[in-house]
Design brief:
The complex is a heterodimer of chains A (about 100) and B (about 210). Chain A has about 100 residues and is mainly alpha-helical. Chain A has a single domain, classed as ACP-like (Non-ribosomal Peptide Synthetase Peptidyl Carrier Protein, Chain A), CATH 1.10.1200.10. Helix content of chain A is about 55%, strand content about 5%. Chain A has a two-stranded antiparallel sheet with strand order 1-2. The two termini of chain A are about 20 Å apart. By secondary structure, chain B is an alpha/beta fold. Classes of the chains: A mainly alpha (about 100), B alpha/beta (about 210). The interface between A and B is medium-sized, with 28 and 25 residues.
């Protein structure tokens, strides 16, 4: 999940990172800002790290802010009907949702 | 009630606070900025908006236009020379008063976020509420969002409200404070270096 996948651009020969890598880094940066955690702590989040429902400070207003920030920084639109407990439950679920949104 | 640093100095700044939930998140930081302004010989005044904090009038009777009137009246009574509007406070800035807006946000975006927090908490409680019907309920009869009772005029005005344009106001973007936005924090927080940087930007603008 956190591995960087890189490939070589056949035309320019330069190494390009996939957008999944950016999404992961951006999502961690947003969580760092919301939860006031240091970079090392957020870097240790794995797919099973619990979010909404596990972190008492992450209330509905904080999650609303998190989603709005995801829209701005990941350049996606999140419909409120797409927001459910499952998507917010773990870091892995939130990342999978964000990556799917960016791929649309 | 008003929090203030008043020594009858040349520069007198009216502070318009962030709105609703963000007001709580930014209160400590706002007061820290005022203290730094005081050290830089700048007076500042932070009034409670009607219906908020110590104000005795009901919040559900308030609207953005009433708050704009209150901001104008406050500017006059404190003889403010400039304004510093924080986040949604930018929607209330008296047109005649020059100054700064820190990370201004539209009413539309504030309302969307409040509605979103309500749909998330309903989902958590096992109820499903559609944001479209919450907007409709708000417009018709008012609605409680994140613990704030908002009347129909407040909802209608927030929905329409964009960040006003005027060359009199300079916007201070979060990036220029070299730190993360504190209104995003799940718990109210404070950053001394950001408060100092914000006060510096204003002091430089006023050449004090």
């Amino acid at each position: 999940m956190t591995e960087r996948s890189m490939s070589s651009d056949p035309q320019t020969g330069s190494v390009v990172e996939t957008s999944a890598t950016d999404t992961d880094a951006t999502l961690r940066a947003i969580l760092r800002d919301v939860l006031a955690l240091d970079a090392a702590k957020v870097a240790s989040f794995d797919a099973d790290t619990g979010l909404f429902g596990y972190l008492p400070e992450l209330d509905s207003m904080a999650v609303a802010g998190l989603l709005t920030e995801m829209e701005d920084r990941l350049d996606i639109i999140i419909d409120d009907d797409e927001v459910d407990g499952e998507m917010l439950e773990t870091y892995g679920a939130l990342l999978a949702f964000s990556e799917a949104k960016r791929g649309q | 009630m008003v929090a203030y640093f008043d020594h009858q100095r040349l520069h007198r700044l009216l502070i318009l606070p962030a709105l609703f939930d963000e007001a709580n998140k930014m209160r400590h930081q706002t007061l820290a900025v005022m203290r730094h302004l005081d050290h830089r010989q700048i007076d500042s005044f932070l009034p409670d908006l009607p219906g908020c904090n110590e104000s005795l009038v009901p919040l559900e009777e308030q609207s953005l236009s009433l708050w704009i009137d209150a901001a104008k009246a406050a500017a006059q009574s404190f003889q403010a020379t400039h304004v510093l509007a924080i986040r949604g406070g930018a929607l209330l800035t008296p047109p005649g008063l020059p100054g700064w807006r820190y990370a201004p946000v539209s009413g539309k975006s504030i309302l969307r976020q409040l509605i979103r927090s309500r749909t998330i908490s309903s989902t958590e409680a096992g109820r499903r509420e559609k944001s479209a019907s919450l907007f409709e309920q708000g417009r018709k009869e008012g609605i409680e969002l994140a613990g704030f009772s908002l009347g129909p005029s407040m909802i209608a005005e927030l929905e329409e409200s964009e960040i006003p344009l005027s060359p009199r106001w300079r916007d201070i973007e979060q990036a220029s404070l070299n730190g993360p936005p504190l209104w995003l924090r799940a718990e109210p927080d404070f950053a001394a270096d950001q408060a100092e940087r914000l006060a510096d930007i204003i002091a430089q603008g006023l050449k004090v």
